[in-house]
Amino acid sequence: MMLKNYIKITFRHLLKNKTYSFLNIFGLAIGLACAGVIFLWVEDEVTYDSAHVKKDQIYRVWENWNYDGDIRTFNSTPAPLAEAMKTEIPGIIQTCRASQGGTDILFTLGDKKMYASGLYADASLFSIFTFPFIEGNAANPFPQLYSIVITEKTARKLFGGTRNLVGKTITVDNAQPYVVSGVIKDIPENSSIKFEWAAPFEIYFKQNAYLKNWGANSVDTYAELAPNADVSGINAKMQHIIANHNPGAINQAFLFNMNDWRLHGQFSNGKQSGGRIEYVRLFSLIAWIILFIACINFMNLATARSEKRAKEVGVRKVMGAGKNKLIAQFICEALFMSALAAILAVLILFVVLPGFNALVDKHLSIALDKPMHLLWLLGITVVCGVLAGSYPSLYLSSFNPVFVLKGIKSKTGSAVFIRKGLVIAQFSVSIILIICTAVIYQQIQHVKKRNLGLNKDNLISMDAQGTIKQNFAAVKTALLATGVVENVALADHVPLYGGNNTEDISWEGKPATSSILISQRLVSPEFIQTAGMKILAGSDFKPVAAANGMDVLITESLEQLMGKGSAVGKTITTPYTADSSIHSRVAGVVKNYVYGNMYGSPDPVVFYCLPEETNLMYIRMNAGADREAALHKIGAVMQQMNPAYPFTYRFIDDQFNAMFTNETLMQQLSRLFATLAIVISCLGLFGLAAYTAERRTKEIGIRKVLGASVSGITRLLSADFLKLVGIAALIAFPVAWYTMDQWLQKFPYRVSIHYWVFLLAGLAAMLIALLTISFQSIKAALMNPVNSLKAE
Prior knowledge:
By secondary structure, this protein is an alpha+beta fold. About 50% of the residues lie in helices and about 20% in strands.
């Protein structure tokens, strides 16, 4: 019965104060919706790889490389390592080798052609990891050498279905028939290992004979440990296993558990250091802060309108209602409003989630059929209701009934002080987020505008498949004849990415004990010009170069390491086999260019003219050419010259932008949350301004009768709120500076934090607050003083 009365009173209160009820519920709904999308994103991140049943026992092998005291951590390992681990180290149940990165191959089935990305792996891939089979089985996934396991998605694209496919044949790269040996369920998006097909590692091993060498670190190695295995003891043995088989090796292997792959996969000086967990913690904190801001609105508006409910409280106390009952009533009101806000928040989530998914490149869903999601929604609703209603209920229930019924106003100093403090807290957070958004944006643009030492614009790459390499001269001539192509070249890696590297290159004067990481690039003679790099000394590769790598180009950073004077004409030595080396003459020096880590200083590079060892073709389009028309002409040439393969391409500037995914995500989300924080804060400020104007109606009337102008009254009503925003700015500035300074420290190449960012953020907050307040202030100032004086 009592609960029924509480609900009736709540409804009456909501209907009587429609504007304030809307501001409260809508503000809280925005906060709940914002927190909802963040927690969905966080859930997806923290549950990464949860589909794998043996997750706690699965490890990936990483290696620490000591380059003259500079310890680098890589996940590339030698292919023989897997077998050695399994046979030499107790506690390791099974291991698996897999090719690195996604390997794109062309599937042909009748007239149907499609590219798919996958990997070559040992059969143990399917017993270590959880990839449920629809057809076929994990115990024998590759019954013959040229077997292939495909996902549901790939099966539907090729065959139009997922059943009765085992034994069917598809042609790979227009050459080798493969027999479908299994179909697995589509791999969850939040899985570290994703592929559209998997084939036996033996095929990859046959195609790359160098993999048998312990010095060739080119594959991923995974291990499954016994449930009670001593991981620290196994890692102690892992440190020496490579050196035992490859004396003099400077790399030490260690096991890294699957639970840490996604969130803790960043290393510094050989030790785990940060990772995506920092973003998870940051955005979780922001979610709770925005919820808190929304709850602040509720507290402010509830306490601000306390006088409207003073008589109600007084009468209830006289009629025998105790303080506890009054507290219970107001908490129930807050919970009811929080429940309405939660319902509205769910509706908002359904509307905004598709856009948010596009922003974060995920496929998140509310999934109210999941008990955990419902529990979270209920929990957050209750927390917000209790938090938002706690102070108002304590404040309202403390009114003295004698003073209230006699019309004596209770002292509201503490309530006013708390309201002002809450407004300051709201805008402090908003200003901090505005500053963070601005600094992150500046950092991203600072790096994107960095002189890379190459020209990424109007440059596309494509796989050099089929007969492209054999007929490269004819392909190049045909492309140049289109009038839209400036140059064409071959290479083995994307210029912006890390690529292959070695510490074994030497030259006269290099200390025998020195280990320096040097990247290697295999290119055709046209590559330097096509990539837009600059020759500083010596000459470029000759148009028709011998394919024995006798002449090389090096970057200026390597020239500096080789001693005083020009490096042109000097000799560098590169190991070729265990018993032989290649001695190459430096023909020219290339200006340093940025690759791999866009924020750091690039390692030295050696370019070898070995076009037959390349796998990518680069096409430089004319700067003034229409992009779509140029691609159409290039595509026509490729279809004519290489008809067995569809024309597919990638823009290098798109690959460049993709290297800032984390920073861009952080900047976009910070901008979104800053906007929401401002909106929620302004909703509360709007309500407080309206209430202030309402309370001072009589004062405003008297001032107007005495000659006060509209502008003067507007300034009077706005001044107090603007002072609060100013105080918020002073609090926010040092907090924002410290936060961004700490964030920027992890980037060797970074922007400076400028004072004007703080000034603009503060002025923006002041302007937004002024616009919010001014509507109510001007409205009150324009009221007829006669009506104002009659109002009381």
